[in-house]
């Protein structure tokens, strides 16, 4: 949920720096390498929270390790922003504990105020103050420092993001990408041990996004700050994160590397979040599950068990040559490098979707055949979190 940020001290949470000297070296004319920060460990322990009697976080336990980029991923309303606000201290959880370097900063009997946590926060819309110049915006989080020192630190932070030449400009004169970098400089200036970022790229032009995301990641790596980044975009999480925490309805579904979540999704929801899938239902019979795309082995799954089968669109091969599974092309959508196909196949009321390279199927083909890559068939026990990555054998 996007909310207007509160434009007071909580917009920037750390304020006095971590006392570590700036370790900067000039790399080029536009940008210095970022000063190193003392990365902190941020732990959520059984966090619960709700609004108006409705629980929106239902027992989340999760740790962001020092120096890692942890992405909180999930659909709208899954509780990502609430978790971030609790970490920042803008919101106090109903129960559970928040730990910073294993020290409790929010819990049943403790509440360390936001400005004493050494945590930086960057909002979705950057929340720059329009009436302040760029350098004043960046200095805002350094008010505990003497004026001259604060300005010097703010200039250093602007150099890190390559924007020191814009110090005296006002936010309205900057592009969206430049505003994003000012907001990043402002969040990093106090050298927070943890930086929280709420959808930091969502307001940017899609062409700009990739570059700015890569630049931001480079700066995060240089500062070595622990970063917790909220996103609802699985690809963005995969591009940025050391680990991804997938949330659904206020609960953690799975935590792991992008490889873990893509290749070994814990359930159908996780599978569907990371790739487009065709979904089937089936029942385990003689150690196998029948699907319209063939028979999947159901190793380890109980006989008679109802299962969900996910077949990734990218795992469905389509050919004009003869083959085992006949298919009639229902629709084709050209997307440049790839094309998206809908195919009617025997035994399935709904068309099967496939995403194939655009030059594979000749134009005008109506009758085709389908093959499936076994790696792209995922079988899940219904209502269970146990995954099984199956192999198919064609029925005919
Ligand atoms: N101040 C509030 N008052 C009432 N309900 C709230 C408040 N803040 C959040 N919620 C509810 O809590 C749930 C989780 O919201 P949250 O903003 O944390 O989700 P999110 O995963 O960040 O979603 P989005 O991606 O849309 O920002 C939602 O159902 C939301 O409506």
From TrEMBL:
GO cellular component annotations of the record: membrane
GO molecular function: ABC-type ferric iron transporter activity; ATP binding; ATP hydrolysis activity
Biological process terms in GO annotation: quaternary ammonium group transport
Keyword field contains Nucleotide-binding: yes
Keyword Transcription in annotation: no
Signal peptide: none
Pfam families: ABC_tran (PF00005)
Taxonomic superkingdom: Bacteria
Domain ABC transporter: 42-274
SUPFAM superfamilies assigned to the protein according to its UniProt record, in alphabetical order: MOP-like, P-loop containing nucleoside triphosphate hydrolases
Keywords: ATP-binding, Cell membrane, Ion transport, Iron, Iron transport, Membrane, Nucleotide-binding, Transport
Membership in a protein family: Belongs to the ABC transporter superfamily.
The name this protein goes by in its record: ABC transporter domain-containing protein
Species: Ciceribacter selenitireducens ATCC BAA-1503
